[in-house]
Amino acid sequence: MEDYNKIIESLGIKYLKSNNIKVSTPFSLKDYEETENAILILKKGTIHFGKDKELLKEGHALLIPANRMTPLSFGMVDEKAPELSLEEFGFKQSEYFKTAGAEDLSNVVADFTMIVFETKVFDTVNFFTALDIPAFSLENVAVNSAIYDVITENQKARAGNQRVIKIKTEFMVIEAIRHILEKRLFVEQMATNSTYFKDPRLIKLFKYIKDNLSGELTNKALSDIADVSEDYVGQYFKTLTGINPQDYIEYQRMEYAVKLLRTTKMSIRDIGKNCGYKDTAYFCRRFKMMYGIPAGKMRKRETLMNV
């Protein structure tokens, strides 16, 4: 347990956005995904999640790790209900979603509250993504209470609300981790994938990569940071993380590109350069290969929270 205490102490937890959402008609979203973690609590109605279409019970929360593609269905979906991609949903969201303050709907099929948040070890590695766990439901009074407190503070905008939101978001995440440990969920993943959080050389590599995404991140540069030979650094990295360093670097660069596309007005060319791609055409090809859509469309792509 002491090891997990150290990991929790290392976490940088940050509230990003939240909303109350009512779904007006049944539909499925086949590829929901956020670049950061999301947690929702179903207040009323029906939501199914994952490839097996597991039912999320009313009053239960659903935690979806960052970059974990998770099919979602709202309401009692049948063969007549539309199945949309996240891109298609972006153009039709007003047909399905109503946010807080909207008129009362007599035909609400799902009413839920959602929070998107960041949870990174030493502000570098996404904790829930690194565990390689799927989206999962949890019945936890403390987590539910924290979610509602965050939403309330965000809506009322009272003095000190940002401080309270920060504290409550941190509490929510810690309670979610406690739930995983106490219920012994994902035992194998936790045992295997939490070990490298304890390796200071690897954490040093993660931080170096994050701080130098626009630069030359060769194996030679990484070997100097980790103080291992250039021939061994790739094996060292893959043994601890399961992927080779250059694949990890590209993943981090693309994640940063998505962030810049959604939060800035930078040109595609400048975003590519900031993410370490000197050739804009190559950056665009790699981006489309990874996400299935051009970078320009990603800028317009809506998520569940942008309603």
Describe the protein in words.
With 307 residues, this protein is an alpha+beta fold. 47% of the residues lie in helices and 21% in strands. It has 13 helices and 12 strands. The strands form 2 sheets. Strands 1, 3, 6, 9, 10, 11 and 12 form a 7-stranded antiparallel sheet that branches. A hairpin with a 4-residue loop joins strand 4 (47-49) and strand 5 (54-56). Helix 4 runs antiparallel to helix 5 (161-182) and helix 8 crosses helix 9 (230-241). It is globular and about 65 Å long. The model has no long low-confidence stretch (mean pLDDT 87).
* Secondary structure tally, helices: 13
Q: Give the class from helix and strand content and strand pairing.
A: alpha+beta
The fraction of residues in strands falls at 15-25%
Rg estimate, integer Å:
20 Å
* Overall mean confidence score, pLDDT: 87
Q: Could you state the order of secondary-structure elements as H and E?
A: HEEEEEEEEHEEEHEHHHHHHHHHH
The low-confidence runs, each spanning 5 or more residues with pLDDT under 50, are none
How would a textbook summarize the main sheet?
7 strands, antiparallel
What helical percentage do the residues reach?
Answer: 40-55%
What spatial form do the alpha-carbon principal axes imply? Answer: globular
Task: Report how far the terminal alpha carbons are from each other.
Answer: 41 Å
Count of individual beta strands? 12
